[in-house]
Design a protein that fits this description.
Blueprint: H1 5-27, H2 30-51, H3 57-77, H4 83-88, H5 102-116, H6 123-133, H7 139-145, H8 150-166, H9 176-198, E1 202-203, H10 209-225, H11 230-243, H12 246-249, H13 269-285, H14 290-303, H15 312-326, H16 329-343, H17 345-353, H18 361-373, H19 377-390, E2 392-393, H20 394-410
Parallel strand pairs: 1-2
Helix pairs in contact: 1-2, 1-3, 1-5, 2-3, 6-8, 6-9, 7-8, 9-10, 9-11, 10-11, 11-13, 11-14, 13-14, 14-15, 15-16, 16-17, 17-18, 18-19, 18-20, 19-20
Length: 412
């Protein structure tokens, strides 16, 4: 059965991080691992369209990448040493599939994420490397996601890999004593990966399910490693409760459907049940943190039978705690949305207009919605225009455009 380029691209998205993690262990070099995996996918593009998808695409890719790395190591060995070749072992014939030891691969991915999130690297470099190596995003995609020039992002990734190489940062899971100091960076990076999957900052699609699922998988692995860490459980609960709404969040035409208009019958009840159980565990421990409070807010939304039954008083109270903890303007902006439901749009607008978030498209979108509710259409249209101008995701721009046009019709 023939395979299309789009299907191979899907395999690339799903298996790139797993393949690179295995090859980093085998090669001892991030650059060599990436090159080998990219060559393997190039070979797949040439072979799979006629030969068909192999029984285990990941095994095929890892085997082909290992064989490619062995070829490179053989050439280098004539000038330097045979150390890398010995580490890679002998190649399989004609891409016989790599023995998929899932436990070993899980550990490979954990090692890679802790390497990407090493404290010697700046946070922006940690995020970029995680998206590149574990998420399989291209440099242009990461640059668009974080609103920086492609050359800037490329240099950032190169410098980060150079830092890992030159500082001899070990490819390993930290010892238990180090985990506490390292886990905050890992959680921050994984959450950014999840957010990029749940609302892509640019491009045609609103959602990238592969990134959401990768972030959830990684968080489960960290949770297994640190079962007593409340913030790990909080992040897992937050992502599960958020991801549970994925199917209801986009229409058949990829249009964005806001929370209040979603068909709650499409929500994933198993993910919600698991997320609520984790939130209850966190509440019982009574050590609230950033992710646990956000998870509790999502739990309120997911527990409501409908948008009209949402306990907005509780949401405001949770945002009050979160705002005290973080002092974040983004948290204050989200808190204002809840305040509007409890105290009205005028009180919320005063909170929004006290914030300095001009470059953030949702600041303008929320402000526009409040202005519509206050029957100030001219200002609302200008705010929607500002939001549209600052969004790089087509689904979001189209949604904002519909809201803008509806506000014009409402007051025409």
């Amino acid at each position: 059965m023939s395979v299309t380029a789009a299907e191979i691209e899907q395999v690339f998205r799903e298996q790139y991080g797993r393949s690179v993690a295995v090859l980093v262990r085998l090669c001892g070099s991030i650059d060599a691992a990436e090159e080998a995996v990219q060559d393997a996918f190039t070979a797949a593009l040439q072979r799979w369209p006629s030969a068909g998808l192999p029984p285990s695409p990941a095994g095929w890719i890892i085997t082909a990448a290992r064989n490619r790395a062995i070829d490179v190591a053989r050439r280098e060995a004539s000038r330097e040493s045979r150390h890398d070749l010995a580490a890679l072992h002998e190649p399989a014939d004609d891409c016989e599939e790599f023995d998929m030891d899932m436990h070993a691969i899980r550990d490979d991915r954990l090692r890679l994420i802790f390497t990407c999130c090493h404290p010697a690297l700046a946070l922006e470099s940690q995020v970029a490397l995680t998206l590149r190596l574990l998420g399989g995003l291209s440099t242009p995609e990461i640059a668009r996601a974080f609103l920086v020039p492609e050359t800037t992002m490329g240099q950032r990734i190169v410098r980060a890999k150079g830092k890992i190489r030159d500082a001899k940062i070990p490819f390993r899971i930290p010892e238990h004593a180090e985990l506490q100091a390292r886990v905050a960076a890992v959680l921050a990076v994984v959450y950014l990966v999840f957010n990029e999957g749940y609302t892509a900052k640019s491009g045609e699609r609103l959602l990238r399910a592969d990134l959401c699922e990768e972030a959830i998988r990684l968080t489960r692995q960290v949770s297994d490693l640190m079962p007593g860490e409340g913030e790990v459980k909080g992040l897992l609960a937050l992502m599960l409760l958020t991801d549970a709404r994925r199917a209801a969040r986009v229409g058949v035409d990829n249009s964005l459907i806001p929370l209040a208009e979603q068909d709650r019958a499409l929500w994933d009840s198993s993910l919600i049940e698991e997320g609520l159980s984790l939130v209850r565990h966190c509440v019982a421990a009574n050590r609230p943190g950033y992710y646990q409070l956000q998870a509790a807010i999502q739990a309120v939304h997911c527990s409501a039978a409908g948008a009209g039954q949402t306990d907005w008083q509780q949401v405001v109270a949770l945002y009050d705690q979160l705002a005290d903890l973080t002092r974040s303007p983004i948290v204050e902006l989200n808190r204002a949305v809840a305040v509007a439901e409890v105290h009205g749009p005028e009180a919320a607008l005063a909170l929004v207009e006290a914030l300095t978030l001009d470059r953030y498209h949702l600041f303008h979108a929320i402000r526009a919605d409040l202005l519509v509710r206050l029957k100030r259409p001219r200002e609302a249209v200008a705010a929607y225009d500002a939001a549209i101008a600052r969004s790089e995701n087509r689904a979001e721009r189209e949604f904002l455009g519909r809201k803008r046009n509806a506000s014009l019709e409402l007051f025409s």
